[in-house]
Design goal:
Largest sheet of chain A: 2 strands, antiparallel
Distance between the termini of chain B: 52 Å
CATH architecture of the largest domain in chain B: 3-Layer(aba) Sandwich
Structural class of chain A: mainly alpha
Order of helices and strands of chain B: HEHEHEHEEHEHEHEHEHEHEEH
Helix content of chain B: 40-55%
Number of domains of chain B: 2
Radius of gyration of chain A: 19 Å
Mean pLDDT of chain A: 87
Chains: A mainly alpha (315), B alpha/beta (326), C mainly alpha (325)
Strand content of chain A: under 5%
Strand order of the largest sheet of chain A: 1-2
Low-confidence stretches of chain A: 1-6
Strand order of the largest sheet of chain B: 2-1-3-4-5-11
Oligomer: heterotrimer
Shape of chain B: elongated
CATH class of the largest domain in chain B: Alpha Beta
Low-confidence stretches of chain B: 1-5, 9-26
Helix content of chain A: over 70%
CATH superfamily of the largest domain in chain B: Response regulator
Mean pLDDT of chain B: 86
Distance between the termini of chain A: 14 Å
Order of helices and strands of chain A: HHHHHHEEHHHHHHH
Largest sheet of chain B: 6 strands, parallel
């Protein structure tokens, strides 16, 4: 069992496994993968990571409360379909986005309710809502892609703001918002407490139930926003596009140093974790290594990152 | 650690050849080949075909396969990565024929010539399309089964993955063939998701609710073999057809267990698609569309399909150009 | 996550009867499902269909039974599906090259066991959380299997071997005998041996377990090795049943196995649950799928139904446990 070490006030004191791995990967790929360090490629890697980032940020909060959200990928798929269908019907990207966020929110609240009020373990509760979201995705689309959506949607993905691609701006803004929420508001301290010290909340007069529901609801809403990005990227809605992404998000969060127990949360670690996974895939693609090696490398990366982490916490 | 050495060697070779292969060169072109997944044997035949064609013409292939089978975001990412690398040309099977259109447009925007194989993309501009016509494959194979049954009997359809283009067309072919035979009755049409185990269990369940099944139309060979296993396990007999023309299916046809399989011929598609890409780079004439005519592999003609994959060679260009004749 | 007040010194008796009650409720649920399905579909209650359901459930049970032991220690094994795929491919190759089914069976079991052991080492020695360790292993195994199979299929096995998966013995499908055998072994092991009790103790309160002298690491290694070996066994049955092996047969196996364990009453927090419960869980899931097939329920609705059942079953579990307190 890991020691219940308190997180040092200055995160830089603890250079986690993920930072080392990211550094090593960047150096190695920069040397041997053709085109890796070009602006175009770096921009690609960051943009490709944005959808995962939007899921991994709220996933960090959820994992900090000793929970898990396995439904995120399926909810993302559903919301991306909603964006496509609603924007197609109304001609407006914003209405599509609003509908997607509402649907995501509904699922998030359902998850939170199942976990906090009914008391079902998060693994099971979110596995259940995963099935519901997956089923709904197939039903609203009848298994077909939804195409012909207004250009305003796809432009989101390719547009730039002061030469920075819009998705990166969105991810950055999300990161800053989550950072502020977690480290600079009272709500943030409550989230830490939800993980490490739930009793303290009761003494502070806060209801853990309401807080938990809010945390899962945030996850659902972010899945809604990510749905817009996904539809923009594919210029269509597809009934299976986002399935399985929640495991990538969980892995990125774990690789980034947030532990499944004890409510340790490190948002910057999550950011590094997401970028590390993206860099690995990108570098392997550029080197055109056989797909089987790529698949195995991802597993090795995840294991190695946590192994290094475990080592450091015991040194 | 051997893999590590191999990958460093491979990487260095790529780096060197990458720096050398700038500008138009007649030889040593790099063809990036995109396929849907690593698990379906069909795409392996496409890749082997592409490799064979490239080798014969003195070019090189690089394969891009999503680590998560059929993953749309991954194929999009791979396209973005490949555009940075700028291969000489691309041979492309879209993971989803509608969702990948933005990816194709990116390739077009980067002015990399691209050939569409297998699944016809719903958009983007291509040098050519090389594929088989799923609809006529379904139609032809189903017609053969119905003819064998004398135009009457109880039929079940085992469908593939809902929403996939090949499935939609093949099942449509099945249904149209059934319409032509008024004596044949369609008992059920259930999805097997192109998976062997699922088709097996679906077949088992269908046999419970239907005591007499004379013909099974399966949308691919894996499902057809699953259905055959279920039939044998229950000691029942029925005529079963599949589509793809895999080695396993050919063996089953030879042994008399499977009636027929529609020849989807991934090997030839890979060959010809790559040939077109290379020829176009070298300024040689190409054909804008080659749709392989439907061939039904049966006990009469299976011999030519028995050759193992690594011994096969691509058709010559003249033969290939004639393949598209309808 | 661990309830400090739960004592590992609780008398064996009360431990057992709590779980027995849970299993009873589940058997009742399974029975009810059968009754409902018999009304809805006239083909349900035939001998052939029941035997099919048993055979299908046994495939799921082999994987889920080993998994139960892992979950009892508050762990998880996400790699079981990929384990089945790789073990099946290796076993298939050995049978083809050596012509000996026995060697193939041994290969499958050994491959599964080695993978399980590696998982155990990652969890105990390398101190990696089981979720991540087995998730990473899942990817590594998939990579290995894809590379090894290169898109090929191994098919065509001796008919004697195939009897293990598709044959009948005195009227019952062969896998069902194995099901009963492992059900008995699993139950006896978990409830009646010291090792089994230690595993429950580790799940209920790992700190107390270690303090009371239980060699926690060795038991953990054991449960992961067992989970892996059972996946190896499942791979043999799959090989025999499908008469082939491909790289992707494991994709759809893991989550249903986990669902079976959870529906069967085993808690993710550890220390609670039974192997028999897992069997009933597998039965319930298989009955639902069978019912949906017979009733020709649209494929779109099937994941929805499975999800709802899972949540409902676990909810029921909690409600009935609370009443017992």
């Amino acid at each position: 069992m890991r020691e219940a070490a308190a997180l040092p006030a200055n995160p830089l004191q603890r250079i986690p496994g993920v930072a080392i791995m990211l550094g090593v990967l960047v150096v190695v790929f920069g040397a041997i993968a053709p085109g890796f360090l070009s602006t175009a490629n770096i921009s690609n890697v960051l943009v490709q990571s944005t959808i995962l980032m939007m899921l991994a940020l709220p996933m960090t909060l959820i994992i900090m409360t000793e929970g898990l959200d396995l439904s995120m990928g399926a909810v993302l798929t559903l919301t991306s379909l909603i964006v496509a269908i609603v924007s197609l019907a109304t001609g407006s990207m914003l209405i599509g986005l609003a509908a997607a966020v509402l649907v995501g929110l509904a699922f998030g609240i359902a998850n939170g309710w199942l976990v906090a009020v009914v008391g079902i373990p998060p693994f099971v509760a979110t596995l259940g809502t995963l099935g519901v979201a997956q089923g709904l995705s197939l039903i609203v689309s009848d298994g077909q892609s939804v195409v012909g959506i207004p250009h305003s949607v796809r432009d989101i993905y390719s547009a730039t703001l002061f030469t920075v691609p819009v998705p990166i701006v969105m991810a950055l803004v999300s990161y800053l918002a989550f950072h502020a929420l977690l480290y600079h508001t009272r709500f943030g301290t409550y989230i830490f407490a939800l993980g490490g010290n739930r009793e303290a909340l009761k003494y502070a007069g806060r209801s853990p139930t309401r807080l938990l529901i809010i945390v899962y609801a945030i996850g659902g809403a972010m899945a809604g926003v990510a749905g817009l990005l996904m539809t923009a990227r594919m210029n269509s809605g597809h009934p299976t596009a986002g399935l399985g992404l929640e495991f990538d998000a969980i892995a990125a969060v774990a690789v980034g140093g947030t532990s499944f127990e004890r409510g340790n949360g490190w948002l910057l670690g999550t950011l590094l974790g997401v970028v590390t996974v993206g860099v690995l895939r990108n570098g392997l693609n550029l080197m055109a290594l056989p797909s089987s090696i790529q698949v195995a490398s991802i597993g090795v990366l995840v294991i190695l990152a946590l192994f290094l982490d475990g080592l450091r916490s015991r040194l | 650690m051997k893999n590590y050495h191999n990958s460093i060697c491979a990487a260095l070779t790529l780096l060197v050849s990458g720096t050398l292969a700038t500008g138009a060169r007649a030889d040593g072109e790099t063809i990036a080949v995109f396929t849907k997944n690593q698990t379906n044997p069909f795409f392996q035949t496409v890749r082997v075909g592409a490799d064979a064609a490239a080798k014969a013409l003195g070019a090189k292939t690089l394969h891009y396969i999503p680590t998560k089978p059929d993953s749309i975001p991954e194929q999009l990412s791979q396209i973005e990565d490949v555009v940075v690398k700028k291969p000489s040309a691309i041979v492309f099977t879209p993971v989803d024929y509608k969702a990948m259109v933005p990816g194709v447009e990116k390739i077009n925007g980067a002015k990399i010539p691209v050939v569409n194989v297998t699944d016809r993309s719903a958009g983007g501009s291509f040098l050519s399309f090389v594929g088989a016509d799923d609809y006529s494959l379904g139609l032809g194979t189903a017609r053969y089964l119905l003819k064998t049954l004398g135009g009457k009997g109880n039929i079940v359809i085992i469908e593939g993955v809902k929403g996939s283009l090949t499935n939609v067309d093949r099942v449509r072919g099945f249904n149209d063939a059934l319409k032509e035979a008024p004596g044949a009755k369609l008992l059920a049409s259930q999805p097997g998701n192109y998976q062997r185990l699922q088709a097996l269990q679906v077949m088992e369940n269908l046999m419970q609710s239907n005591s007499q099944i004379d013909g099974v139309l399966a949308a691919n060979d894996a499902m057809a073999t699953g259905a055959i296993e279920a039939l044998e396990g229950a000691n029942r007999k029925a005529q079963v057809i599949g589509i793809n023309g895999t080695k396993e299916a050919v063996d089953a046809i030879k042994a008399g267990k499977m009636l027929a399989s529609g020849d989807y011929n991934g090997f030839v598609q890979g060959c010809v698609g790559t040939m077109i890409a290379i020829r176009s780079l070298r300024g040689q004439p190409v054909v804008s569309e080659i749709v392989l005519s439907p061939t039904v592999i049966t006990k009469e003609n299976y011999q030519s399909y028995e050759q193992p994959l690594d011994k096969r060679s691509c058709p010559s260009w003249d033969e290939a150009a004639k393949l598209g004749a309808k | 996550m661990t309830d400090v007040t739960k004592s590992t010194a609780a008398p064996l008796r009360s431990f057992l009867s709590e779980d027995v009650i849970q299993v009873f409720y589940r058997l009742l649920a399974a029975f009810l499902i059968c009754v409902v399905l018999s009304f809805l579909s006239e083909s349900f209650f035939s001998l052939g269909n029941i035997l099919n359901v048993l055979r299908q459930a046994s495939l799921m049970f082999f994987i889920a039974s080993g998994l139960t032991l892992v979950v009892l220690t508050a762990g998880l094994d996400l790699s079981v599906g990929a384990n089945v795929a790789l073990s099946a491919c290796l076993a298939g190759t050995v049978i083809h090259h050596s012509g000996s089914a026995t060697l193939g069976v041994l290969t499958g079991l050994a491959a599964g066991g080695v993978i399980g052991l590696l998982n155990g080492i990652m969890v105990t020695v390398l101190r990696i959380p089981s979720f991540i360790a087995t998730y990473g292993m899942l990817w590594v195994l998939n990579g290995l299997t894809y590379w090894y199979m290169a898109g090929d299929t191994i098919h065509g096995f001796p008919s004697g071997f195939r009897q293990i998966g598709s044959g009948y013995l005195f009227g019952l499908p062969t896998p069902v005998y194995l099901l009963l055998l492992f059900l008995a072994i699993g139950t006896i092991f978990a409830q009646r041996t010291i090792w089994g009790q230690e595993i429950y103790a580790i799940g209920a309160n790992p700190v107390a377990a270690r303090l009371s002298g239980i060699p926690v690491n060795r038991r953990l290694l054991l449960v992961y090795a067992v989970s892996g070996t059972m996946a190896g066994l499942a791979s043999i049955i799959f090989l025999a049943r499908l008469n082939s092996a491909e790289a992707d047969i494991g994709e759809s196996l893991t989550l249903p196995a986990i669902a079976a364990v959870l529906i069967g009453g085993t808690s993710l927090f550890g220390g609670v649950g039974t192997v028999f419960g897992t069997f009933v869980g597998a039965l319930i899931l298989t009955l639902m799928l069978n019912g949906m097939n017979l009733l020709q329920v649209n494929a779109n609705w099937q994941p929805l139904v499975t999800g709802i059942i899972l949540v409902f079953a676990v909810w029921l579990d909690m409600k009935t446990r609370q009443r017992g307190r």
